[in-house]
Amino acid sequence: MSGWRDEGDIYANGVDIDRLLEQILSDPRLRSSKAFSTTKTYADEPIIRRGSQMDSYLPQKIGQMRELQRTPRGRTWSETRLFYEQARLMEDFEDNCPYHGQFQSYYPTYRTMTDRQLRGYFTWRARVRAGQVEQTAASFAYVYLYELLMGIGVEPGLKAFDAIEAFWKTYRQFDPGMDRYVPEWLVDYVVEHGLPAQLAVPYAHLEHDAAIAVLERAEKDALVAAPPKGRRRQPTDFAAMSSAAGEFAQAVCQLSSYRLDESRLYKERPEDVSRVLLAVYSRLALHYRGSRTQGLTETLFGLRFAVRHVMYASAVRYEPGFHEDCVYELSPTRRYVCKNGLWSCDSYHDGGARSAKLGQIVRAVDRQLRQALGYAHPLKDHAEAKYLVKIIDDEIAAYLGWKQAAAPRRVEIDLSKLAGIRSAAAVTREALLVDEEREDSAVEGAPVAAPCAQNAFGATGDGSDALGLSEDEAALLQALLDGRKYAGPGNVDLMVDAINEALFDLLGDTAIEFGADGEPQLVEDYVEDIRAAL
């Protein structure tokens, strides 16, 4: 085979093997000759194959890679350094020998593969780079990811990040276990290469740290506003905490083991629950400052501090040189520091878990508030600390008192009583007049013509005239008062509109409505007022 190139596709003198095979197999005389004919039965497979398709064939490039690990220099390298150097050597290599077996290794590298597996890997990798991602031996996919992390076959930086993310999102349908590792590697890649922080946001669980920061800020605000020792604490200012209470409750929904967002009371009365929660947390912050060595937020989630950070944990990766010293602010609550090639992460280190201690506080608030409101769905007691229950009850009482005092005054005017009030006022006025005033009033109010009845408004003349009604409109109104059907002249619809307009000053509402049968009828509540007015 020394006359063949590594790819096994071309003779040393330049003859095209594909063309030669096609010529041999298309010649009917050759196909019918004894060299190519037999009475035996075989499975379907090519009669003639390239040398590169033979299982025993080993491309020269793979041979060079194998030789690299046997050199004196290669023997001194670490496994990750050897993998990196071999990856650089094989960066552009492609093969055409698929592998359908299995290959599993905890830390897969080229060294851990057989020659047959290596050929299968580079065949599969060529298809992936061409956009054809297929399921393969389990560890092949991780070797490919390790190459991308080291910039093998892709430009380091944003292009490599996109390639890692795209491959993971496609291949995770075959291997969901990748979700344990790749999201963290993507965050590390953003940090190491100084890429925009928003690329890491979906994978960094920053919403958890941001929620802790909300609780931390609420605690600091409570401590700053606290009076000096020996002075009384001012009542909670519930009016000033509207927006802060909503943000606080959302943070609690992220952090509490008691699922506040699933609480019936919170769903129905979120503002009440939110304000009481924030008030209780503020009071507890003062309590912890006076009785504990740690603050409230620290007790619930631990301190924020820097710890050693291993970049790309569980991945096989080599970095040729030390990373320059830097500080990368991923969020207000998490930053990465590289010094002398060593990384550290300054953040909360609670693992992103929900707090059971916070859950106890939130549930107790929910239960006590339900009890105070007489809510139809109470919660059972869990024997919380007495000081906690007392703080909660005090803040609930203060909140309900504030809410009652702040409620707007509602004034209702019953217009149906106005006529009676006017009549009573007239009687009272008459009783308070002295004889002289009564005589003077009688003289001044004496009519020139014959006297007539005084209407309900103190005006003389017919009641319909005082209301501004025509003769026909008054007749219609009287018919409705008597429960009769109006049979007089005029357009009933227009007359009803005129009557309603005339009576609006008296009633402040519509006097006549049309029933289901289309006939006009008086609104029952105003019948007596209209009768008195007439």
Automatic annotation (TrEMBL):
Span of domain TerB-C: 398-531
One Pfam short name: TerB_C
Source taxon at top rank: Bacteria
Domain TerB N-terminal positions: 59-218
Source species of the chain: Paratractidigestivibacter faecalis
Protein's recorded name: TerB N-terminal domain-containing protein
